[in-house]
Amino acid sequence: MSNEQQKNSADRPLGITDAAHKNHSELFPGHISTLAVTDPELIGIFDNFAFDEVIASSKLDAKTRLTLILAAVIGSQAVNEYKVMVGAALNVGVTPVEIREILYQSVAYVGMARAFDFLHATNEVLTSRGHRLPLAPQSKTDADSRHEKGRATQKAIFGKMIDDMYDKSPKDQLHIQRFLSANCFGDFYTRTGLDLKMRELVALSILIAMGADAQVKGHVRGNVNVGNGRDVLIDVVTQLLPWVGYPRTLNALAAVNEVAPGDGKGAKDAR
User: Fold this and answer.
1) d(CA 16, CA 203)
2) What is the pLDDT of residues 240-262, one digit of tens each?
């Protein structure tokens, strides 16, 4: 065994594969895990699965993978894990603006009460890494344009069904349809910092982690419509598995199989 191999072996828990150690070190260079000392068996199982086996099945690059894991961790309401993964995301090239856009978009899905702690956690990590706040603005709508642009964005993703939703809405609930257009899509989806295809993957990742199965199905359809095909969606769901667990993974795969059965067609690359 070479000196370098001996050093690598000494720096990682017993039983961790070379690939898991390499991929983990890319995200957390120089990190010494306290859990590897207190819970070495679990860390061995998890790291070999999440950082070797699952990644080996993927065509997504590290930046895309971390972008969607961040979204899922917000959806899972795991703020301590989120702080760790924000650092990892920065290490593989996810920009502060992109991290902020993931979080801002999540407000429409998890609500401000659940996003609040993540805002402070994000700001804490960014300032500790030397980034000045506030970051550059990304909004592209105003009070006069947000509804029109939001509804146009909805239709670009979901098609004619948006008009049908307005037409079929009970009158006492029509304001919710307007809120969806102006707020969820006008205020957030129209922002720069993430493109439309990535925003749909971010939304899907948040919803999968929340266990919002009806909305997961709708956003599987939305992803297919914007060019994220079955192959991309299965890859994304696979990468989220270690972070959200099997029940939500299997429910998401059921939605993919219903909406985009067979080989599917669509974009081969989510980047």
Assistant:
1) 33
2) 999 999 999 999 999 999 999 98
